[in-house]
Design brief:
Blueprint lengths: L16 E5 L4 H12 L3 E6 L15 E5 L5 H11 L3 E4 L10 H22 L3 E7 L24 H16 L3 E6 L1 E3 L7 H10 L5 E3 L2 E2 L1 E3 H12 L5 E4 L6 E2 H11 L9 E3 L14 H7 L7 H15 L10 H7 L1
Parallel strand pairs: 1-2, 1-4, 2-3, 4-5, 5-6, 6-11, 7-10, 8-13
Antiparallel strand pairs: 9-12
The structure holds nicotinamide-adenine-dinucleotide.
Length: 330
C-alpha cells in the first residue's frame, strides 16, 4: 500500500488507516469504497461467510485479508502491522439462527478481540453496526427511542450482537454504535428486497407480511456512518429515515423498477403474533449531532438495487430469521 494525499477530518489527522471487518459485505464494501475514493488506506478482513468476492475490487490503498475475526493470532498480527486509527466493525454471523456457537464465536469473541487489539494499537475510533433487534421483536414504543430497554430475547444473532455492543462500551474505546433496522441497496442480500427480486424474475408469487418496517438506503447510511470515522458523535445512535413503510410498498417499488405489470397478485399474510406491526427507529439524535438526514426516496433506492441485481445476479440470500418465520414474511 502506498501512502496517499491528506484528508482533513475532525480527529485531526490526514489520510487515515481504517481497518474494516467484513469489508466484502454489503455495508462494509460500500464504506470501504467511500474511504478509498477520498484517499484513506483500508485493510479489510473477511472470511466470505456472507460477503461476495466481487463486492470489493482491488485498489492501490486496499489490503484484503481472508480470514476470521475470531482468530486471535491473525487479528493481533493485522492490528500490529496496520495500526489502524479507525476500526469499522461490520463483520457478523447471522445466516443460521441455530448456529449459536458460531454467533458467539464471531459476534462476541470476534468483537472482544477487535476491541482489545484496537486498544493495544491506539485506535482512536471504533464504529459498530448494531441490530434494532436489540430492542426485541416487539418493541415497547413507536418510534423506538434510544431510551428503549435493551431486550435482545428470541434471537441468537440479537443476543450476541448485543453482548458485543456491551464489550465495546466496556473497552473504554471512543466508539459509535449505529443501531439499524433494514438497510437496502446494491449488494444487499438479506431482507425482503432480494427475495422479491428473485421470485419476481422467476415469475413466482411473493408472500408479503402486513407489517411496516424501517428501510434505509445504503448511500444515506454510509454518508452518516462516515462522519463517525471522522470523529462525529459518541455512543449509540439510530440510522433511520424517521419514517416506516409497509412491506407492500417495497414490493410495489420492486415491480416498478423491474417494469413488471402483469405479476401474480401477492399473497398478503397476516402478521405472526410475535411480529411487531411496525418497527421504526427515531433518528433525531443522529440528525442533530451528525448534521445528517436521509435523502434517498424509495423508488430511487430500489431502482439502484435492482440495477445491481440485474448486473451481478443473486446466488444466495441470507436471513437471521428461522425458516418457519421467514416463510411468513417473504
Ligand atoms: N444490513 C442490515 O440491514 C443490517 C441491519 C442491522 C445491523 N446490521 C449489521 O451491520 C453489519 C453489516 O451487515 P451487512 O448487511 O453488511 O452484512 P453482510 O453479511 O453483507 O456483511 C458481513 C460481512 O462479514 C463477513 N464475516 C462474517 N463472519 C466473519 C468472520 N468470522 N470473520 C471475518 N468476516 C466475517 C461476511 O463474509 C460479510 O462480508 C453487521 O454487523 C450487521 O449485524 C445490518
Amino acid at each position: 500500500m502506498k501512502s496517499c494525499h491528506a484528508f482533513q477530518n475532525t480527529l485531526g489527522y490526514g489520510a487515515m488507516r481504517v481497518l474494516i471487518t467484513g469489508g466484502s459485505g454489503f455495508i462494509g464494501s460500500h464504506y470501504a469504497e467511500r474511504l478509498l475514493a477520498r484517499g484513506d488506506e483500508v485493510l479489510s478482513i473477511d472470511n466470505f461467510a456472507t460477503g461476495r468476492r466481487d463486492n470489493l475490487r482491488e485498489h492501490e490503498n486496499l489490503l484484503m485479508v481472508e480470514g476470521s475475526i475470531a482468530s486471535f493470532e491473525l487479528m493481533q498480527s493485522l492490528f500490529r502491522y496496520f495500526k489502524p486509527e479507525v476500526v469499522v466493525h461490520t463483520a457478523a454471523s447471522y445466516k443460521d439462527p441455530d448456529a449459536w456457537v458460531n454467533d458467539v464465536e464471531v459476534n462476541v469473541k470476534g468483537t472482544a478481540i477487535a476491541c482489545q487489539m484496537a486498544k493495544e494499537a491506539g485506535t482512536k475510533r471504533f464504529v459498530y453496526f448494531q441490530t434494532a433487534l436489540c430492542y426485541g421483536v416487539k418493541p415497547l414504543e413507536n418510534p423506538i427511542t434510544l431510551d428503549h430497554p435493551i431486550l435482545p430475547e428470541g434471537s441468537s444473532y440479537a443476543i450476541s450482537k448485543t453482548a458485543a455492543e456491551q464489550y465495546i462500551r466496556l473497552s473504554g474505546l471512543d466508539y459509535v454504535s449505529f443501531r439499524l433496522a433494514n438497510a437496502y441497496g446494491p449488494r444487499n442480500l438479506s431482507g425482503p428486497l432480494p427475495t422479491f427480486y428473485k421470485r419476481l424474475i422467476q415469475r413466482q408469487e411473493c408472500f408479503i407480511s402486513d407489517s411496516r418496517r424501517d428501510f434505509i438506503f445504503i448511500d444515506d447510511l454510509v454518508d452518516c456512518a462516515l462522519k463517525a470515522a471522522d470523529g462525529a458523535g459518541h455512543g449509540v445512535y439510530h440510522i433511520s429515515t424517521g419514517g416506516d413503510m409497509a412491506i407492500i410498498e417495497l414490493y410495489d417499488a420492486t415491480l416498478k423498477a423491474l417494469r413488471i405489470n402483469d405479476a401474480k397478485k401477492p399473497d398478503i399474510r397476516a402478521r405472526n403474533p410475535d411480529d411487531a406491526p411496525s418497527i421504526l427507529l427515531d433518528p433525531s439524535r443522529t440528525e442533530q449531532e451528525f448534521g445528517w438526514k436521509a435523502r434517498t426516496g424509495l423508488a430511487e433506492g430500489v431502482a439502484k438495487a435492482v440495477e445491481y441485481y440485474q448486473k451481478f445476479g443473486i446466488d444466495q440470500t441470507y436471513t437471521h430469521l428461522s425458516a418457519q418465520h421467514d416463510k411468513k414474511v417473504a
